[in-house]
């Protein structure tokens, strides 16, 4: 039972939004995703998919995209990205009911993987697209949501954590943020994020070990559409 992560499928089976306009790497990207999942991920594995699942604006427009994700091997836990308009954070419990046994939605809750709690939220970093005051407001809201995820996990007795964010944990140039601080406070082992696309953005935030935490960027175009193994026992206990 291995643990994998990948983010930003940006599927568009239900709407007209071909991804190859964003570069050759995105040509037939859904075929690469399917092929890599079939090659690497087993039915009893767990994959956390870190947001930006679909270009659809609502559940109806996302239905084919979510069905595509559902059909990939193993258990799939989804995180919210900035483009996931189908997912109202306040209605996550309803999504979990609706997709029970097919997909799981990580927001204000946690999921267990062995003795780890998988916690997470969308996160936020400053990209110069909004006012700094607005950025602080959104970041604060995301921190509250993340705290709810940690609270649920600790209340259930978990003390080992892997943290998933959609946005990078820091804004460009920052050496710490409320997200890295809370990760250090809880002794999180890994922080996994995506959102960054294209070579110019892959170094926006931490990659590798910082203050004892392993930071991993798993944007699909960064990993060449292959899920990233988060655990070392990937093959041994299948
Ligand atoms: Fe994205
Ligand atoms: Fe994104």
As a percent range, the share of strand residues is 15-25%
How much is the average pLDDT? Answer: 95
Distance between the termini: 6 Å
Number of helices: 5
How many strand elements? Answer: 11
Protein structure class:
alpha/beta
Helix content: 25-40%
Assembly form of the protein: single chain
Low-confidence stretches: none
Any ligands, ions or cofactors bound here, and which?
A: fe (ii) ion
Main sheet characteristics: 6 strands, mixed
**Order of strands across the biggest sheet?**
5-6-7-8-10-9
C-alpha geometry: globular
Structure description:
With 238 residues, this protein is α/β, with parallel strands linked by helices. It is 27% helix and 19% strand. The chain has 5 helices and 11 strands, in the order βαβαβαβββαβαββββ. The strands form 2 sheets. Strands 5-6-7-8-10-9 form a 6-stranded mixed sheet, with helices on one face. It binds fe (ii) ion (2 copies).
Please write out the topology:
Blueprint: E1 3-6, H1 29-40, E2 46-49, H2 59-71, E3 75-79, H3 92-98, E4 104-106, E5 111-113, E6 116-121, H4 132-155, E7 160-165, H5 178-185, E8 190-193, E9 208-210, E10 213-217, E11 228-229
Parallel strand pairs: 1-2, 2-3, 3-4, 6-7, 7-8, 8-10
Antiparallel strand pairs: 1-11, 5-6, 9-10
The structure holds fe (ii) ion (2 copies).
One fe (ii) ion is lined by residues 52, 81-83, 166, 195.
Key phrases:
11 strands
Brief rundown of the structure:
This protein has 238 residues and is of the alpha/beta class.
